[in-house]
Protein 1
Amino acid sequence: MASEYHRGEMDIHEQASTYHLFVMLTKWGSLVTASLLVFLVLVFCTPTSFIGALAVGVVMSVLGFVVLRDKGGDAH
């Protein structure tokens, strides 16, 4: 039975690019959401001052950036 589909011959460049974009947006969006949530909790639910909460949020963002940045190489 003849078929137009041949396993492994399809160009998946667009699908791979879309998946990579989705992973990047999820990763960085999660970091932003977590940092903002920690900041807001510290400001409104604890006696921490605005400056203290901001400092914790910035430190968390910087540490998250260091951990989540691309290390290079071709990971799967």
Protein 2
Amino acid sequence: MPNFDALREDGTDNGDKSLVILQSLLCLLREKNLLSRADIEDLCERVETRARESASGPFPCCPTSASAAASEMAKIGTFIGNYYGGKHRRM
């Protein structure tokens, strides 16, 4: 597909592009109240769990990448929680 070829030829890391898009999407969904703070906390927990079980989980992945993803998701969760506020998940 010609549209995807442009992405490959760019020279910029596509992972960085994806991260910016996903961060913006999470913020937009939270802004529109389609995601609650509790949903973001659940997502953070799921990413962290996936990082811990990176080799043995249902979708094996690189442990280093999974740990980096968990760290980044924690940062995003903290930012969204501080910036947009909302109720925490009930324990």
Protein 3
Amino acid sequence: MTARPAWQKSSFCSEGDNCVYVSAAPGTLVRVADRADPAHLVLATTQAAWADFLHVVKQPD
């Protein structure tokens, strides 16, 4: 039996289900979904690539 991923909802969500969900998968993967039902996988990437992405988007303009 495979454990279900624990999804974390973005703290920048607007009202309703317009949100991004992130889940660290076993091993080195990070999963990203953009729907109210996070089972609709949109992207899977490495933890290193996800960390690089977050670093870039958090940079001031």
Protein 4
Amino acid sequence: MTTPQEELLPTTRRALAHRIAVAQAEGRTPSLVAAVVRGGQTVWHGARTSVDGHGPDETVQYRIGSITKTFTAVLVLRLRDEGVLDLGDPLEKHLPGTGAGEATIAELLAHSGGLAAESPAPWWERTPGSLRPELADVLGEQPLRHPVGRRHHYSNPGYTLLGALVEKLRGASWEEVLQREVLDPLGLARTAARPSAPHAGGWAVHPWADVMLAEPAEDLGLMAPAGQLWSTTGDLARFAVFLTQGDDKVLGAETVREMRAPAAPTEAADVVDGAAYGLGLQLQHRDGRLLVGHSGSLPGFLANLTIGVEDDVAAVVLTNCTSGPLLAGVGADLVRIVADAEPRIPEPWRPLRDVDSSVLELAGQWYWGTHAFALRLTADGGVSLGPLSGEGRRSRFRANGDGTWTGLEGYYAGELLEAVRRADGTVSHLDLGSFVFTRQPYEEGADVPGGVDPEGWRGIG
């Protein structure tokens, strides 16, 4: 794959190289490889290694651990988009008899199904998957640790269930479905359930001495949908583009946007940390940026994929040690370095190609009681409504084609906005989920709930 590194400034490239050099040296890892994506293409690749004269490139496979979960989530959402299932369906509807069927598919995707974090002993990441041949062996005698849907509790067995769901509904193995429906369409030729040369070996580094121990690379069996995959920075860079833009061969832009939205109840500590979880994606508010992606770890390997959607910058970092560098921080720093040094240049402003006069007349200032709002037309054919100044409820709205709009975010997500007209066709007011917006504060004659004092506005006499 061509990596047009010249597209970044020399000072930016040096800052990126310095960051991964520090991560490899201070994290005491045998090798570390990274890539940065901007504008839909890889613009930088870097590597650091303890082996003189040899540096891994964007084709070398590393194990990516729980980034696998994002791939599994994509398969589930394809089933939803095809109408095969609904995210609100309980698992029992499609995969009966698991003992965890009360959890909905959405709750499993967002780790809020109440399931245990791990399978019963022995440690599944360091033992053959053949030790857990049935779902009951993965879930154990007590699958649930919390009430279903009440809290975010990361669960590897939860993604085993989602993999089994995919297999049941597709009539093929998780690996076959993934190859056919995601890897091949996206051109991820170096992503697979098993490694092929060139690939890195996994190592444990002694915490108190500069010596290493080889880690076993187990086939995870039924746990594969939670962490089996091997991949490269080249392939994960392409996957980052897909998670940003969507690809109609796999999932459309609206669905990947849905994956990036918070979907799980948030713990108090997570609120403080600025962390949340979507549908197969981790979310983090860091350095003033919303970052999405996923981290992964298996014995011998650490991995991270971080996307700054608003900055249109993504980073991939892979390494072959059990513990050491904190890759989530490294990935966030790579995004920050590029976004700060070379901020995104916005597209040129262009006027709308055409505009409906009945919509244009709605643009401008409106009042909800005494709160001043502005309605604006958006380039995608919808409208936006938000306070004229300061904080407050705001949303974009999608046109429904019948003179109404549906809210897309925030307090008004899913709520209906309608321009209510008088008998003569003129606009009386806006109705937004029963809230009345008028052209003047408590406008006389408007259909304001509770009516308007006939004495009107007045001072203190």
